[in-house]
Amino acid sequence: MLGLNSKDQTLFLVVIALTLLAPFVLNPFPEGSELAQFNAGYPDLMQRFVIFGIFAIGFNILFGLTGYLSFGHAAFLGVGSYAGVWMLKLLTMNVVPAIIVSVIFAGLFSAVVGYISLRRSGIYFSILTLAFAQMSFALAYSVLTPITNGETGLQLALDDPRILDVSRMDGSIPATNFFGIEMRDGFDLALGPWVFTFNFGYYLCAIVMLVAFYISLRIFRSPFGMMLRAVKTNQHRLRYTGKNPKPYTLAAFVISGMYAGLAGGLMVAMDPLAGAERMQWTASGEVVLMTILGGAGTLLGPVLGAGVIKYFENIFSKINDNVLYNWFSFLPESAQDVFVFMIHPFIGKGWHLTLGIMFMLVVIFLPGGVVEGGQRLGRLFRRRNSSDSTGGATTPNAHPAE
C-alpha cells in the first residue's frame, strides 16, 4: 500500500490510528477526577503535539540521516510564521495560501542559509546555523519592525485589506478557516464521566502531519535517503566513489527547512500571531531535544519526543504545591511538608529540571531515545514468551525412559 513494505505499512497505520483517535488516547482519566489534570486531549495542546511533531520530523531528515546538527532551525519556523500571517492579512483568512506560502518562503531562506553553512561541517556548521538564527531573531526584533512589528509581534488587524476575503465580520476580525470551516469549530462527546473534544483545527494539522510523516518515510527508504546515510557514515569514502555529497546535504537542509516552515504556517493558521521569540536559539535547541529524546534517525522518535516535551511543558508544569498537598493529604502534616519540599524543585516552573534529568538519563542509558527503550522492552517480552512456550516442550531427539 502506498509503495510501503509490510513493516512500514504497519507503522504508518499505527500512526494514523493514534493520530485520529488522539482525543480518546489523550483523555484517559474521567472529567472531574483528581487525575483529570493529566489529560492532554484539549485542542490547543493536541495541535501543538502534531505541529511540533512536523517540526521534529523535518529536523530529523537533516540530523538523523546526515548527522549535520543545526542550531538554527527556529529561523525557518519564524520565517514561515511571518509569511503565513502576511497572507492572512493581505489575501484571505483561508489557511491554505498561508500554509503554502510559509513552506515556500522557508524553503527559499533555508536554501540561502544551507548554501553558506554547508561549506563547513561539524561544530563549525552548527555555529554557522546558530549565527544565522540569532541574526534572524535580531532582524525580526528590531531592524525589520515594519515587516515583523518588532517585540509586539505580527498580528491581524481590522484594517487589513484581505483582497480575496472580508476584512471584518460583525465588527471583529474573522476567524481562520479551511474553505469556510473555522479552525476553532468542533464538538464535545460525553461518554459517562469522560468528555472528548473533537476540533477541526487539530484534524487539519493531524492530516498534514500524516502526509509529512509519509513523505519522511519514503525519503528514509529511498536511494536519496541511502545517500544521506552514506554522508553520515563517511563523507570521505563517499567522495572516493566519485559522488559529491554537497547537493545531497543541501537538498536535505532545504527539505528540513520546508518542514519547519510548514510547522510555522500551521501555527499561525491555528493562532494568527507571529513573534520574534520563535527564532530564538532556545526554540532551535528544543527541536534538538525532541529529536534526540525520541530517537534521532528513527521514523517515530521525533514525534514521540515532541509529544513528551510539549506534555511536560503544558501539563507537568502546572502541578504546584497545592496539588501536591492534596495528593499527600492522607499523610501527617510533617510528612506532607517533607514530600512537598522534596518534589517542589521538579514541578511547576522547575519542570525544566525534570526534563533535563530525563534527557541526561536517556542520553546515557538509551542513546536511541524512547524508540530504543520500546525496542528493548519488545525484545524482552518476546524472549520471555519464547522461553515460556519452549520451557515445557520435549526436544525432538528425546526418548522416554525405558
From TrEMBL:
Sorted UniProt keywords: Cell membrane, Membrane, Transmembrane, Transmembrane helix
Superkingdom field: Bacteria
Cellular component per GO, a single term: plasma membrane
Main location: membrane
Membrane topology listed for this record: Multi-pass membrane protein
GO MF annotations in UniProt: branched-chain amino acid transmembrane transporter activity
Protein name: Branched-chain amino acid ABC transporter permease
